[in-house]
Amino acid sequence: MLPMFFWAFVIGGLICVIGQLMFDVARLTPAHTLTTLVVAGAILDGLGLYEPFADFAGAGATIPITSFGNALVHGAMQEAETHGLIGVLTGMFEVTSSGISAAIVFGFIGALIFKPKG
């Protein structure tokens, strides 16, 4: 169990280091950095490399923003096999809708509970 935690920490940390280097060294904006990481996850999933990567790294690969790109492509490809071209569109939303909905609901609840300082 300890090696699993170690690799999750190392891989997740490396993904974060890559993002930080994109901010600091490449001087990319947050939008460009996030988009690049999402597209990288999507490309890795499209090539069939993200699932073995996630199996090895665990939460280190499934928590960072790269997994969002993975989820989009994975859902689109899975639904495209059963429903054709329309499945590409519906698959992306089907797989990611619960996470996006949870973020909206919990963000709203947090806004109701806490008051901003300022």
From TrEMBL:
Keywords: Membrane, Transmembrane, Transmembrane helix. The chain crosses the membrane at residues 6-26, 33-50, 85-114. It holds the Pfam family SpoVAC_SpoVAEB. InterPro entries: Spore_V_AE, SpoVA. This is Stage V sporulation protein AE. The lineage of its organism: Bacteria, Bacillati, Bacillota, Bacilli, Bacillales. The gene is spoVAE.
